[in-house]
Automatic annotation (TrEMBL):
Keywords: Magnesium, Metal-binding. Its cofactor is Mg(2+). Coiled coil: none annotated. This is HpcH/HpaI aldolase. InterPro entries: MS, MSH_C, Pyrv/PenolPyrv_kinase-like_dom, Pyrv_kinase-like_dom_sf.
Amino acid sequence: MSLERRHDREFVRTFFTSPTAVEGEDDSAKMIRRAAQLRGMQAPDVWVPDNEDATAPSMRDEGAENIISVISEHGAEFPGEIHPRIVWHRDSPATRYQCFEHLLEIADPEKDAIQHIDGFVIPEVGDIDDWKKADEFITIVETKHGLAEGSLAMSVIIESAEAELALADLREEMGKPSNNLERLFLLVDGEVDYTKDMRAITPTGGLPPWEELRHNTSRGASAAGLIAIDGPYDDIRNIEGYHERMTDNQAKGMLGIWSLTPGQVKEANESPLPPKTGSWLLDVNGREVELDAEDGRYVYDGDDVTLETTGDDRYRLLVGGDERELDGDELTEELLDLTSYIPSLNDIVDSMEEFEAAKEAGKGAIAMERSATLLVDGVEVEISNDRMWDEATYQAAQTPITLFQDVYENRPDQHEELEELYGEDVVDRAMVVG
């Protein structure tokens, strides 16, 4: 059983960093000043004024001042949470001392910023004892400034093998009277520094996919009642690649990702939400192709699958290089094996409502039918299957609904866009079901 979540957000889709001080500009705070005024789908769930890697070392003292200035002015209106990233390093006492100085400065209530700050992001952590050092610094700062103990969250960036191994210690360490690690909020992967720490090499010089790291971080977050966030995707124009990364992450339970631009924020905010309309996919040589919806039918328009009638209830189906002679029942079964369905928000709500009604009537399980008319090379084929729904199926379907509810409750600035996307009726039902 995972630990109880201790923060307002159950889900974080977007972790957006922006440099706190830009050298050579009339207004060195211009990047965080712009970020503080983002709204709607371009505003992240968590905004991270980045006073570490995104800001030059010579500008970090000014960056701390800019954090105070911008957040004191705009923090009250910012729709997401605010978690500045400050310097830290497991092997550098001098860097950790600079962290402490910046914490003290930014958290001073007389400077009118801390009341709008939800926590801090600590990079370059090592083993669990190093996490405790950062936690103790925050506890001291809270005490110094008269803030409630544990009121400031702490998120850490997993950028070393030491930090990855520390994930296994979290459940045991959180809640011990000798620390305040309950303040932990996000576990964020930092694949660039992790690659350096692991001394990994690839032929192209690019980053390895680090699927194990992402799985371990997601597992550690689930076990400790925290939220897992993937690292930055720096090919900012490759939207398709960004979507593929998010889809892969979501299958691991990692529903949040680092965003580097407002455009990436918008994509990442929308990605984990259920689609507006359902869609059928056809497996073509290991590649899933979305079928076009036309007049109540789902149409395959490509050259890799062909279908023709060869006689009364006889068909020839060619998929890639595999040709098969089939009767009508065999064709239906073959196409059922090759197709899959992505449910819309309305589909999920309908199914959950139907199961809730059945459960109310004393049924423990019911069959849900899904049917469609496929059109391939002018040949229509009706497919239909039944999926058995029980309590476990219901609970699994509830995750995207719970995410939607969390977003709607915590991001009123996105209400209008969500209602335009799904329709008010679907939104109202989604907020009640479950």
